[in-house]
Amino acid sequence: MTEGRPTNSYPQLSGQTLVVPIVGDPIAQVRSPDGITRAFAARGRNAVVVPLQITGERLDALIEGLILSGSIGGIIATVPHKFGLTPHCATLTDRAAFLGSVNVARRNPDGTLHGDQVDGAAYVTAVIANGGEPAGARVLQVGAGGAGTAIALALLEAGAAELALHDADPVRRDRLIGRLRERFGDRVTVGSSDPTGFDIVAHATPMGMRSGDPLPIDVTQLKPATFVADVVTKPAVPPLIEAARALGCGTSTGSDMFAAVSELITDFLVADGPLKDR
Fold this sequence. Notes:
CATH superfamily of the largest domain: NAD(P)-binding Rossmann-like Domain
CATH class of the largest domain: Alpha Beta
Strand order of the largest sheet: 4-3-5-7-8-6
CATH topology of the largest domain: Rossmann fold
Number of helices: 8
Radius of gyration: 20 Å
């Protein structure tokens, strides 16, 4: 066996091991380091994901130092650094450029970073894996913030016939609608808390994480044929999902999305750059 190649589910660390830092503030709650390291090993890559706690005001200095090392195979960003990583990328995927946000970057041949944003794609992947079908669907989305922007873009790219946006902040809602209409035209409309007539309800806010939070939609208007997706990861079954399941709706949870994010991040990192054949 070649020195440093993965054995079983974890790499045998050596001087050949590539390091992929994941930066965040806070960082203690992330589960990605173990999961993605194991995914690298399963694909025969000698690389390890290492968590790094860093505040926003020190992020630039950290990244500028990290990319000087040839041992850095890429960088993963979690909250709140997905926007902060973006200006350090010399090249971006189309969706990352549209969103102005990056949650994973790999090395270009010249050593610079190439960034992508896979949160929205992961949300849609989880919806489809759980039986939802965005293509041709009428979708009501609640939330027009950072996560909501990525999810809205991904749902429309997946072929949603209509995306109706509802947000507690009408200025933020209208701003996102304007941006999306430049690309998708009248497929983007103004929504409300009433899910009547929609095939999919996509929740994209933190509402439901705290005990006593109001539900983001009027669940009394939900029908069993409506698919309900949520971005909330804690609790594992948020109140919206619990209510939808009680009505017989198909559902997708934030935990389902999280699993898909890890898979898509791994796909991106091993598709090209130093981890392609490592």
